[in-house]
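Note to self: keep these together.
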Amino acid sequence: MYGTTRHVAEAVARGLGGLETVKVVSVSAAFDSRYAGPSILTGRASRGIANHLRASGFTMLAPAESFVVRGKDILLLPGEQLRAEAWGRNLAEQLGAVP
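Structure:
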């Protein structure tokens, strides 16, 4: 809706860079972007997405993750893109794509 999830997806893709080809496409994934605060107030789509993926037969490589945004312009907090890249590297390691 605001583009932050795409920014996170692109950062995760950079973290997955050990794979031969990484392409960001608009599909469900087990992460989201949301405001800081208790998930009961802010929502946390990543949990529902992860549950849906598991119910569809997928095995999760990592727990669902939220990346935090702020302000009326819905911008990722400083450091969140780097954290998304690290999360992507962890996924690549789980896949055996990174030594």
